[in-house]
Amino acid sequence: MLWDSLSTLPVSAYIPLILVFAATVAILGTFSGVGGGVLHIPVMVWVLTEIDLKEIKFISTILVFASALINTAIAMYKKEINYWIMIVAVVVATPTIFLGNYINNLINSGITEIIIVILLSYVTIQLIINQYVFKKRSVEQNMQRRWYHIYLQKNGKLVNGFFLCLVVVIAGMVTSLTGMGGGVILMPFLILVIKLNIKDSAPISHSIILITSFLTIIIESTMGNENYFKDSHAMINVTTPMICGAVAGTVAAAFLKRFIKKEVVILWILIVLIWASIAKMIYDLSINGIN
Fold first, then answer.
1. Of 179, 200, 215, 272, whose CB has the highest number of CB atoms within 10 Å?
2. Rounded CA separation 50/125 (Å)
């Protein structure tokens, strides 16, 4: 049985439920600009009580990759993707994710859960700042082009290559350690450090998350965790329908963005859900301790 609350239901009943859940998370994550990982992890820890935390992180990484793939494809269609940035992301993220997975194998699930709680707490603060500070701020670049700058042809802006490497390292570590992707970390860094606005930052963030999550999936399966793919029950009854839901939710969000103007309501729904999940994880830690 995968989890107590759904174990009494037939497969035909609970698969639609988790499909709808994944789609809802993808929509909330796309509207808020942080991706779905920040909600996938705490809710799956809450609900999928019979699945190990490391396997839950692996499933979340797959879902993050699926959403990032759709968002990156849309950005490519709109010619918003810079391929030099993607090349830098591959070169820098590969050793970073190897390191992150090595560290992840050294620490126990209790410490990982504490890291997730801290990161989620930061996420909610950053979401509020993004909504009420960053969206009202006009970001202007004031720099001369140097050899280490990457030129964004569509808007004429420059990306500092050294700062970009720092951003990719952070995203890679967040993805490999927590399975959340790194959208909520990437966006403020791209805005505050690299001096891009939210519109210019979003496609860069999606493309970096696409690369870091893909590399995490590949590297994780080569470091002794290939059994995750062999868990046919979890892959068929959990991962597959959630991937379908994540893709459908991401596509739906791209369409609904044209009509939904008050995204702040969805943002606060997401924040409240994250707060509830944080409370549940802290309660579990207080009962079970760090094992």
1. 179
2. 31
pLDDT in tens, 60-107: 888 888 888 888 898 888 888 888 888 888 999 889 888 888 887 787
For residues 147 and 34, give the distance between their C-alpha atoms in angstroms, rounded to a whole number. 31
Which token pair is 150?
């990457």
pLDDT of residue 22: 84
- 198-220 vs 53-77: helix axis angle to the nearest 10? 140
What's the chain's average pLDDT? 76
> What does DSSP assign to residue 239?
I
- The structure tokens listed for 65 are 């990759």
Collapsing DSSP to helix, strand or coil, 158 comes out as strand
Q: Provide the token pair at 96.
A: 């970073």
DSSP summary character for residue 1: -
Going by C-alpha positions, the residue among 163, 159, 121 that lies closest to residue 277 is 121
Closest CA to 103 of 178, 38, 184: 178
The better pLDDT of the pair 4, 78 is held by: 78
| Domain range annotation of the chain | 14-288
Q: Which has more confidence, 34 or 73?
A: 73
Distance of alpha carbon 284 from alpha carbon 286, whole angstroms: 5
